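Predicting holo structure, 6-O-phosphono-beta-D-fructofuranose bound.
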Amino acid sequence: MEKPTVFGYICDQPRALRECFAHREQFCAPFAEIFKKHPIKKVYLLGSGTSYNASLVGKTYFSELLGVEVEVCIPTVFTNYVKVNINGIYKKDEILIVAISQTGTSISTINALKKAYEEGWQTAVLTEDLNSPITRYARQIIRLLCGEEDVMVETKGYTVTVLTLYLWALETARALAKLEKDSYEKLLCQLQDVLAQMPKIVESSIAWYEKHKQEMLSMELGVVAGYGINHATAIEAALKVGETFRRPFQAYELEEFMHGPDMALNNREFIYLICSDEREKERMLQFREFFLTVTSHVFVITSEEGPWGEKDLLLPCKTSKNLSVLFYSVPLQVLAALSSRDSGIDTAVYPFESNDLAHCASNQEEKG
Ligand SMILES: O=P(O)(O)OC[C@H]1O[C@](O)(CO)[C@@H](O)[C@@H]1O
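Done. Tokens:
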């Protein structure tokens, strides 16, 4: 079998997402069951790295479709500093704590879920490995249907997690009759359309990278900015480029970028902008004009009409703001995977001699 690569997994995403959708009953039914048995009003989402970034997206899905309060916590912060239900407004069975860990071996997420479990809260875990250490601390163990991703870097795991969170919110909202049948069916059709368009998104992202490859490979430092739900897409892109291409690459919420980080701009900086269909779009156009006076390395990723230049990627399809996360994640994943491949970086090899300090072995007790 060929050696697995990050790029290979990115190209496998359209299939993986379709498969996940086809088997949604498997993970939606147990999740909806929690809400049927308990009057959940507040959900904590815990995850590190990519799983944290997917949780940021999930927060919007849960809030909008399920009408519950959501708090996304960095696991170590949750373990050491968060007092669950601090103001005492919820009853014990109104709170659900969900941990997300694709491998089930992130020490931070295991410790956070362990605290939740030992304090007696309702706990659930979403993980690809049902025998992983994290499963010891969940009352409900739910499988993440992304398949193996044997390269340390999570890409299809990210989009499948995002899809899972969307389907959890959608199916649970329907099961609790919080969503009318017509609206539910409309959202389901919209989602099916997104899944059908994913191959085109992958193709156009690859073509965009190939066209600008020489310039993209010369990047020494860069930023990526987004807004609304796609602020999380920017954060995930920065993580991906950092762990693959291994260049300093920071994420910002667009407006926040103009509150100081803009002062450090110079003509060597690469700026990637996610221009989605939200209120901030006009501000993005205004900022883009300014960025182009400082550096020529400005790349917009969008499905929107606009004054785009030859460096910008106009995606061939458009969808709702909530589902646009699945589209906008791909070009930046492709940028990360192909720029690392073309500069000879083996993403499966940790660049330092030290052991992986973030994860424990899949059959090991996590360290405190
Ligand atoms: O989802 P998991 O398995 O907990 O991993 C989370 C994070 O850990 C890493 O593997 C390394 O820190 C990241 O690539 C990933 O985002």
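The first helix runs from residue 6 to 22.
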